[in-house]
Amino acid sequence: MTFAKFEDIRAWQEARELNRLIHQICERAHVQRDKKWIEQITSASLSIMSNIAEGNDAISDVEFARFLGFSKRSASEVRSQLYYALDKKYINQNEFDDLSERTLKISAQIANLINYLYKSKRRTRSNNNKGRVTSDK
C-alpha cells in the first residue's frame, strides 16, 4: 500500500468531508451561542485529518501508526460530541445517524491502515519515486 501524498488516503478524504459538515452545523444561529462546544468538536474533527496528514510524513510505519491512533481517537471524540449535539437539538436524528456513521467508517478505515502498517514491518519510510512513499528494507 503506497500513497503519493496524504490527500490520496481515503480516510483523510472522508475526514475532510466530515470536517466540512461539522463546520456547517457550527454556523447555525442556534448553535453559535455554544462557543466551547464549537471549539471542542471543530478541534476534534480537524485533528482527524491533521494527524493522518502529519503521520503520512513520519519516518517509520510505527510512527505513522501512532499518529493514526491519535486520529482514530479524535474520530471517537467527534462521535461523542455528536451525542451532545443531538441532546441539545443542534442536529436532528437523521443528521446524527449520518455523521455518526461517517465517524465509524473513518475509524474503520484508520484501523485497517494501522493494521497494515504494523504488518508491513518497515522501519523507515522515504519519499522517492515521484512522491510515493516506499520502504527502505
Please, could you describe this protein's structure?
The chain is mostly helical. It has a single domain (8-120), classed as de novo design (two linked rop proteins) (Up-down Bundle), CATH 1.20.1440. It contains 4 helices and 2 strands. The chain has helices spanning 10-26, 35-56, 61-87, 93-120, and strands spanning 125-128, 132-135. It has a two-stranded antiparallel sheet. A hairpin with a 3-residue loop joins β1 (125-128) and β2. The longest helix is centred in the last third of the chain and has 28 residues, at 93-120. The chain is elongated and about 50 Å long.
**C-alpha-based Rg, rounded:** 16 Å
Number of helices: 4
**Total strand segments:** 2
Low-confidence stretches: 128-137
Number of individual domains: 1
| Distance between the amino and carboxyl termini | 15 Å
Q: What about the largest sheet?
A: 2 strands, antiparallel
Give the % helix: 55-70%
- What is the global morphology? elongated
> Would you give the CATH topology?
de novo design (two linked rop proteins)
Short structural summary:
With 137 residues, this protein is mainly alpha-helical. The chain has helices at residues 10-26, 35-56, 61-87, 93-120, and strands spanning 125-128, 132-135.
Topology of this protein?
Layout: H1 10-26, H2 35-56, H3 61-87, H4 93-120, E1 125-128, E2 132-135
Antiparallel strand pairs: 1-2
